[in-house]
Specification:
Radius of gyration: 20 Å
Distance between the termini: 72 Å
Keywords: Membrane, Transmembrane, Transmembrane helix
Transmembrane segments: 6-28
Number of strands: 0
Largest sheet: none
Oligomer: single chain
Length: 108
């Protein structure tokens, strides 16, 4: 029997690390953002990244109170609103901005 030494263990751990990275990057974007700071779903130019960028402008608005912000968070957690924002992002930047404004008005 051949002994499996340090080199074999090192290559095995590298292979497991690379495989874990790609699984998290492509299939578990929330965990990938938490631990790696990057994910496939939130790459630059993706629909999710466009929606998040548009929502940031609403969050820094001084007119928003804490209650309105809490209502906005509740609205954003609903699948219907998330799908509406994703569809608007696919139609273009202006459509996305209008959809975000409508959601923000609903929260006020």
């Amino acid at each position: 029997m051949a002994k499996k030494g340090f080199f074999h263990a090192f290559l095995s751990s590298i292979a497991v690390a690379i495989l874990s990275f790609f699984i998290m990057y492509f299939f578990i974007p929330s965990m990938s953002m938490q631990f790696l700071g990057v994910s496939f779903a939130l790459r630059k130019g993706s629909v999710n990244a466009q929606v998040l960028t548009a929502l940031e402008s609403v969050k820094v608005n001084p007119e928003f109170t804490q209650e309105a912000f809490d209502r906005l968070q509740t609205l954003l957690s609903s699948p219907e609103v998330q799908q509406r924002l994703k569809d608007a992002a696919k139609q273009g930047q202006q459509s996305l901005e209008d959809a975000v404004k409508n959601v923000a008005d609903m929260a006020k």
